[in-house]
Structures are given as structure tokens and as C-alpha cells.
Amino acid sequence: MRIAVALPSTALAEANSLLEKTIKVGFMARALAIFKVEQLIIYCDEGEGVDERALLGKLFNYLACPQYLRKRVFPLDPDLKYVGLLPPLNTPNHPIEKSVKDLPEVCYREGLVIGSAGGRYLADVGVEAPLAFQSSRKLRKGDRVILRIIKRGNEVAEVKEVERSEVPHYFGFTVDVTNLNLKGMISSFKGDALVIATSRYGREIHKEVQNLLELMKKHEKMLLVFGSPFRGLYEIAKREGFDLDEEVHMTLNFVPGQGTKTVRVEEALYSTLAIINLLRYEVEGSSVLRK
User: Fold this and answer.
1) Residue 286: which pLDDT band, with cuts at 50, 70 and 90?
2) Global pTM value
3) Which domains can be identified in the chain, with CATH numbers?
4) In whole angstroms, what is the distance from residue 199 CA to residue 232 CA?
5) pLDDT tens-digit series, residues 46-71
6) How many of the other CB atoms lie within 10 Å of CB of 274?
7) Burial class (CB in 10 A: 0-12, 13-18, 19+), 241
8) In angstroms, rounded to a whole number, what is the distance separating the alpha carbons of residues 98 and 84?
9) How many Cα neighbours within 13 Å face the side chain of 189?
């Protein structure tokens, strides 16, 4: 099952400094990576007069980008002042090999188009020299591509552009910063994904495990929706003029009996994704819950 997460534009609003905001994003990005979230959506929460979509997008995109491409992709920017303090994601799309001879026989790497030669494009993939490849589409300098690299001995034998969906393993998460409000964002997923809202006022997860498992078996994709530090999803939905429970499949409390007055967004991410990860293994045929 593919997992997507939706966060509001106010997700960092309770943090008082850029340093604190950056560190929060680091914690959240690690949660997404650990539990193999494939898509992050930032929706617009207009209620508090705070709109940090640009900052959220910049920080998450920086962390999602392979280290070897960051200097080319991100110019000097005061918003990125503290990103050097953040831990690496260490996802499979962030390989550390810097030489062709150290690459596996077959690997997938993200590349940045830096030019063309002889009817082929040249891409920086983090090794000692750019790799040449052909593409069925017209590419421009600065475009990012995913390449499958096949070696024979210590030499590159084949380089082919592929879609992210063709990579046979987890390849990190993408970041989509939208202009949609909560209802619009949920509507864009309805019919295509199982939509689960998270709220302390939702049904307690331990009472709904079987119902959730049955829904998960019927869908290939799940969207987990989170509220802001100031207002939960029910409050955001009320302000937008719709009934949350009518727009989602389930609204669940993933931290029943919480010991704190509030659960921060980054804490809710870890708590929720850990439970979903366990259930996902059950749906995929694992005996995790039976042991």
C-alpha cells in the first residue's frame, strides 16, 4: 500500500524561530522516510492568517533531494540557514557511492540534466562524470530525472530513464505544495485513495483496527490527513463549512488516552505512521500481528 500524508500550511506555526521550524521539519521528514511515505501534500489552512507553504516546501524538498544534487538545485537562501544541522534521511534514493566502480550492478539514481551531447542528455548522478542517456521527452537543463544504471565490470553499460513507479523499492517521498484548502485537498483524493483523518476526537484506533484493516485491503493507496498545532481537523472543517466525517472514510484517534494536553504534529506523525506500518504488514500478508 502506498502512503501519502497531508499537512497544513500552519504545521510550523507554533515554532518561534527559523531554527526551531527547521528542526521540526527534520523530525517530520525522518518520520516520512522511516515509514516509507511516498507523497507529502501541503494544503492551505487559512484560519490563523499564517501561510508557510513556501518555507515548508523549501525545507522538505531540500531534505528529499539527494545530497549530491543539493548545491546545484538549491541556491544560497536564508531560509536554508540551518539545514546543515539536520540528520540525513538515508533513504535508497540518497546513495553515498561517489564512483562508478562502487555502484551496484543495477541501481537507480536521481539525476539532474546539465546539458546534451550527440543526441543524448547528460545528467549529474553524483559520480565522477555525467552519464549520457536518451529520453522520449524533451528535457531542459535543470530537469530532474530518475535513471536505471546497469554496469558490466567497472563500466556503465546502460543508462535508461524510468518513472518513479518503475523503481522496485522505496525511493523517498515527493513534495506537493498546493493551493487547495482542506476540503479541496481531500476531494482531490476521493475515489482514488482511502482517506483517513486524524483527530483526538476521532474513534479510538484500538476499537477500529478490524474496520481499518478491511478498508486497507480494498485500496492500494492511503491518505493520512493531519491538522494544525492550533486547530484540529474538525475545527478546520467547521471553518470551511463542511462535515469532516462525511468527506473521509474514517476519523481516528491514533493516540488514545494521551498524557499531554496536545500532541504536536511531528509526534502525531510518528504515532500514526507506526500503527499504519504495522497494519500495512498485516494487509500485505505478514504474520506480524499473529506472533
Assistant:
1) low
2) 0.94
3) 2-89+173-290 (3.40.1280.10), 100-165 (2.40.50.140)
4) 6
5) 876 788 999 999 999 999 999 999 99
6) 13
7) exposed
8) 20
9) 30
